[in-house]
Amino acid sequence: MEQHEKDRAYLVYMTAPTQEEALHLARELVRLHLAAGVNVLPGAHSVYRWQGEVHEACECLLLAQVSADALPQCLQTVRALHSYEVPCVVAMPIADGHQPFLQWIAQNSLPPSA
């Protein structure tokens, strides 16, 4: 089944340094209608390279369900609210899924200008 770009839903993968920041991001995205929902998964152990050195940190993962209409403002809002200099925020298009769930994403992540 082929989706039109405007009907597409995205899964936005993010990390945050604390559960408190992750919950703040999640609540704001849902409050602003920039995500239909956000799963917050504490307890991730991240290993990454930053400024030439290998680091390890405990982080929270966030998985947000976002419509194509809301995606640009969602990404902008995460960058504005996030404490990291270079936050991990990646949008992955959802190729297919349970249609009622995909419709729920479209109906519940509509930015005010949409």
Automatic annotation (TrEMBL):
Signal peptide: none annotated. GO terms for molecular function: copper ion binding. It holds the Pfam family CutA1. Gene3D superfamilies: 3.30.70.120. Coiled coil: none annotated. It comes from the Bacteria. One of its GO terms (biological process) is response to metal ion. Belongs to the CutA family. This is Divalent-cation tolerance protein CutA. The lineage of its organism: Bacteria, Pseudomonadati, Thermodesulfobacteriota, Desulfovibrionia, Desulfovibrionales.
